[in-house]
Specification:
- The complex is a heterodimer of chains A (168) and B (230).
- Chain A has helices at residues 2-15, 20-28, 31-37, 40-70, 77-102, 108-135, 141-166.
- With 168 residues, chain A is mainly α.
- In chain A, helix 2 (20-28) runs parallel beside helix 5 (77-102), helix 5 runs parallel beside helix 7 (141-166) and helix 6 (108-135) runs antiparallel to helix 7.
- The N and C termini of chain A lie far apart (45 Å).
- Chain B is 77% helix and 0% strand.
- Chain B has helices at 2-21, 37-64, 67-99, 107-127, 132-160, 180-215, 221-229.
- In chain B, helix 2 (37-64) packs parallel to helix 6.
- Classes of the chains: A mainly alpha (168), B mainly alpha (230).
- At the A-B interface, helix 5, helix 6 and helix 7 of A face helix 4 and helix 5 of B.
Chain lengths: 168, 230
């Protein structure tokens, strides 16, 4: 129960920032300048990296506070860190790419939720399973493999398709 | 396409008759419930095929930028969603008979529902972008990105947790675990449903093309007349 709650908490904490990656550029009028100075793949990679760091920072604050307040004991903290990093990487890449897609669409916020839900849930399920295993002191190899493969596939897809999502 | 359409009627008739009359019900299933495999699996197969076809045409959109390829990609998704919904409905009927409830949050049920949402979102995305050229490009990028992650929903998610779902055609042994009559009707059904998909795709894509020609600023009176005929 605590593991699922933790990921719900992390997801909603990150959800306020992750979809804004490209929307902010469009709203502040800096999108054109960004398109001129850097190739699309570099922009998507950079924004993904920023979102990953943002997720890691949120996790660094949220997870200890969550464990302290709820009296949640984690038997394998390193395994939990690995699950958080792998899950965070996938979440950052998927959110960044989808943010680029919806940046110039109507009703961006609603649309982002609609397009991201089916791509984020497959990531949250192994992340929760891995967190449960880590809290019990087991090493969640299967969850880590699935999360790593998902993040890797999403990163390759986003990198290759960045030109279509961002360039004009 | 006319020949395909003519062949589909006897083929579908033979498949339905064969499904109910030829093979014996499979052991380990309640009553005649195992016969749903002749309709449920082909629906799921056709939906997956349709989404792959959509990815193929989406790649063509990004390479060549032709509007016709975009019509075909969008049509493949629409037809795929129809077959995905049919797969879910037939699966739910089977679940009610075998497990006592239409919906059991089984990993395979849930992942297929997510697949349906994934491609329903594609249609939402299309409606939210007004500029046709940008819509084509963004929709193609989304369809290809979805295709990259689709295997996680179809193959990985249902296999990482315990599932009530009977062993599929793609199983760890890599063998088709069916007797000859079942195998014959099953593969005939797969072929018939694939033909049905191609026919639906052709109809829907032609309809989409006529609508595009009739509503585009460059559209002419001839385009509008052809839409009116449909």
């Amino acid at each position: 129960m605590c593991s699922a709650l933790l990921w719900v908490l992390l997801f909603f904490s990150a959800a306020t920032g992750l979809p804004r990656a490209f929307v902010r550029e469009e709203e502040s009028g800096t999108a054109l300048a960004l398109r001129l100075v850097a190739p699309a793949a570099a922009v998507v990679a950079g924004k993904s990296l920023f979102n990953f760091v943002l997720f890691a920072a949120i996790s660094a604050v949220t997870v200890p506070a969550f464990a302290l307040l709820l009296g949640w004991r984690v038997e394998a903290p390193l395994a939990l860190a690995a699950v958080l990093l792998a899950g965070g990487a996938g979440l950052a890449v998927v959110s960044t790419f989808l943010s680029a897609l919806v940046a110039r669409a109507a009703q961006k916020s609603v649309l982002f939720v609609i397009v991201s839900f089916p791509l984020v849930v497959p990531l949250l399920l192994p992340a929760i399973a891995g967190t449960i295993a880590a809290s019990r002191g087991e090493t969640p190899w299967l969850a880590l493999r699935v999360l790593g493969a998902y993040a890797g596939a999403a990163a390759c897809g986003a990198y290759i398709l960045a030109f279509a999502a961002w360039d004009e | 396409m006319k020949i395909l359409k003519l062949l589909l009627l006897p083929a579908m008739g033979a498949t339905i008759a064969g499904a109910f009359l030829w093979p014996e019900p499979a052991a380990g299933f309640l009553g005649e419930s195992s016969r749903i495999v002749f309709f449920h699996v082909p629906c799921a197969w056709t939906a997956s095929l349709a989404f792959l076809v959509a990815a193929g045409y989406s790649a063509a959109v990004l390479v060549r930028g032709k509007a016709w390829h975009d019509d075909l990609a969008a049509s493949a998704v629409r037809v795929g969603l129809l077959f995905a919904a049919l797969a879910l409905v037939t699966g739910s009927l089977f679940a009610k008979i075998m497990w006592g409830s239409y919906w059991n949050w089984d990993p395979r049920e849930s992942s297929f529902l997510l697949l349906l949402f994934l491609y329903a979102a594609y249609l939402f995305l299309r409606t939210a972008i007004e500029d046709p050229a940008r819509r084509r490009r963004i929709a193609a990028a989304y369809a290809l990105f979805a295709a990259v992650l689709m295997p996680f929903l179809v193959f990985v998610a249902p296999r990482v947790t315990q599932s009530l779902h009977p062993q599929t055609v793609i199983n760890p042994e890599g063998r088709v675990l069916m007797d000859t009559p079942t195998k014959t009707v099953f593969f005939a059904s797969l072929a018939t449903f694939t033909g049905l998909f191609l026919w639906f795709l052709s109809l829907d894509a032609r309809s989409a093309r006529l609508q595009r020609e009739g509503t585009s600023p460059a559209g002419n009176a001839e385009g509008a007349r052809r839409v009116a005929v449909i």
